[in-house]
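REQUEST FORM: STRUCTURE PREDICTION
Request ID: SP-0412
Submitted by: Lab K.M.
Chain count: 1
Length (residues): 412
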Amino acid sequence: MDTITHGIAGALIGKGFFSKREAKVAIFAATFGAVFPDSDIVADLVTRDPLSIVKYHRALTHSFVAMPFFAMLFAALTPPVLGWLKRKYPSLRDWEAPRFWKLTLIYTVAIASHIILDGMTSFGTRMWWPISSERVSWDMLFILDFSFTTILLVPQVIAWIYRDPLLARRRAVRSWVLFTIGAFFLWAVARPAGYGFHLWIAVLASGIFALLFFAPRARGFGFGVSRAAWCQAGLIVTLAYLLGCGYLHHAAFSRVKAFAAQSHTQVDRVGALPIPPSFLDWDDAIRSPDGVYEAQFDIRNPEPPVFRFVPDSPADPFIARALDRPEVQLFWNFARFPSIESFPAHGNHVVQIGENRYSSPQRRGPQPFTYELIFDPDGKLAAEGWLRNGMRRPNLQSVAPHASAESQKAAE
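STATUS: Completed
RESULT:
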């Protein structure tokens, strides 16, 4: 789950369940606690290790084991930090910090929301680290789920609109315009990428936003509802959405199990993964001993999904040497549906290990999380790292210290 959505979820929890007298500090604590676990991305910024996202992300700060220690630490630090801010900025003198144990509860709930939401994605979260390094993946939400983010944000916006009767109409118009622009922007982005985000969906979304933002004006209803009530209602809708995603995941998983049984496919790993742009689109995947079976489909289609097979290259000495590398073993344990390709290129020999969890037939160029090893003409490992433009880094970053200029040029 993206960090912004985590912060919006934390703010919704803070606004929905903590007293007005301490609301400002409580909302800040809930929002901060909800985004804090992603602070582990600092490791990716300070190290040149291209595998840092696999080694460090979603471990210590995403662990239920470490959660109470972080919660108590932040609860202890909040009052002195707030006192310092009050002295520096007198406008904050009416801010009050909840008692230690209440602050600890707020931070605990917020951090837990982050861990649980990340566990609902397909990336995997080591939520019991260091007791266990197993990645928990319930496969209910895509990492970026704009429907889910909207559900979390809209009740907070409605509460803001109807907080001031004199400004309500202007705020409602501005909010409707911004959300409508966002819907059409997503349509414009998703359409060229080949995702099934149709124009009528953006139009329907605009109509729903208009209803949500303007309807509470009828007979002054919206002005009589507290911010806490709006946010609590939003959390109820959020839970309903998650239950719906869980039901759809079960339906998608049943289809991949049926395919495996009917085709007598030997299964090493199996999963049903959500794909953008909506909770109706799914990717069923099976890792077999010799490759990966994959099918992308709309859950509303009653026909059995059509699976395509991505075979591994036949075993060779280069693949054997690649799989023996500690870096590759680390990536292999992270990858759930990897495939292996081995081929000659520019006088060298290349082994690529792709992760079909994030692959898309519509994507042009390298797929995300494609790990590459280059062996020079003498059979020595020259370079390894993420495939060019498959990750955020623009070029393959060498892990091997003896990477040659020729092999780097070949990689580019």
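NOTES: Residues 1-137 form one domain.
Reviewed by: T.R.
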